[in-house]
């Protein structure tokens, strides 16, 4: 793996290598969590009873987009062509994957450690106010590791100006033997591969799709049973690779700034939670 993030990552290239940097560990009993604050505030690895749960930085998939579990904000998934309308004008974000803008800006930026103890950590990020994201704002995440659970909260606060927002998590789980997933609807994808409306009944996988889902997701792998829960009502599942499956709770759909925009007024915040529990 490269020893530095590189210019491509600074510019938001999701396929450029991103080194984890110094790792911090939290944990309680049989659960260990390695965090990489400098690599987008992401979790580099989750280890429960000695079993690695995530595709990690040393697994031969060094692209910034393809390892660990990272927060996505101030948008999640793709924004079509990086374009959206807000406050009566058109905005253009850098298109960095297949002609679209993907997964926000937070996954490439270093987060600051605000507080830490043996079981938990709080990280903070000031969002840019430039061509990558013209609105500014800030973000916080809190992560707690208990004996059999990992609890996470993520929040975004608008700065001096209003801003659209979607937030979520993007864990790269090592390939499960199976998952229990019962969404109520799926967003169909058009010729550009972008989610569109209206939603329809869920279709069979393999998937790289956004779903409406309010039920827990259960992951079975290596003799372990992992339950995923969240107050998010949209989940993306990406299982087209042989080595991994991504199961991503988020507060809105892909291309939300065009499909279902949510706006934060100056100083207003949005918060969500995500929990992993082994049983």
Automatic annotation (TrEMBL):
Q: InterPro entries in the record, alphabetically?
A: Aldose_1/G6P_1-epimerase, Gal_mutarotase_sf_dom, GH-type_carb-bd
Kindly list the GO molecular function terms attached to this UniProt entry: carbohydrate binding; isomerase activity
Record GO biological process: carbohydrate metabolic process
Q: Superkingdom, according to UniProt?
A: Bacteria
What is one Pfam family matched by this protein?
A: Aldose_epim
Identification of the protein by name: Aldose epimerase
Species of origin reads Pseudoxanthomonas suwonensis
The beginning of the lineage is:
Bacteria, Pseudomonadati, Pseudomonadota, Gammaproteobacteria, Lysobacterales
């Amino acid at each position: 793996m490269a020893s530095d993030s590189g210019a491509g990552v600074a510019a938001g290239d999701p396929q450029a290598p991103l080194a984890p940097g110094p790792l911090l560990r939290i944990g309680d009993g049989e659960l260990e969590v390695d965090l990489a604050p400098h690599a987008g505030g992401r979790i580099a690895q989750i280890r429960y009873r000695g079993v690695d749960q995530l595709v990690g930085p040393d697994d031969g998939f060094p692209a910034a987009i393809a390892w660990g579990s990272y927060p996505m904000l101030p948008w999640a998934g793709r924004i079509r062509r990086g374009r959206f309308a807000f406050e009566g004008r058109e905005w253009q974000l850098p298109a960095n994957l297949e002609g679209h803008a993907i997964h926000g800006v937070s996954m490439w930026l270093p987060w600051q450690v605000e507080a830490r103890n043996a079981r938990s950590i709080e990280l903070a990020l000031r969002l840019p106010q430039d061509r990558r994201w013209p609105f500014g704002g800030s973000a916080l995440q809190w992560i707690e590791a208990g004996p059999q659970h990992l609890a996470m909260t993520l929040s975004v606060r608008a700065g001096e100006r209003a801003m659209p927002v979607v937030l979520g998590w993007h864990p790269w789980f090592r390939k499960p033997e199976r998952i229990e997933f019962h969404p109520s609807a799926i967003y169909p994808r058009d010729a550009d591969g972008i989610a569109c409306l209206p939603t329809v009944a869920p279709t069979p996988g393999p998937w790289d799709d956004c779903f409406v889902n309010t039920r827990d997701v259960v992951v079975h792998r290596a003799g372990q049973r992992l339950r995923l829960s969240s107050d998010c009502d949209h989940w993306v599942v990406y299982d087209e690779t042989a080595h991994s499956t991504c199961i991503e709770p988020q507060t809105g759909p892909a291309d939300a700034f065009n499909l279902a925009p949510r706006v934060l007024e100056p100083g207003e915040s949005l918060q969500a939670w995500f929990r992993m529990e082994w049983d």
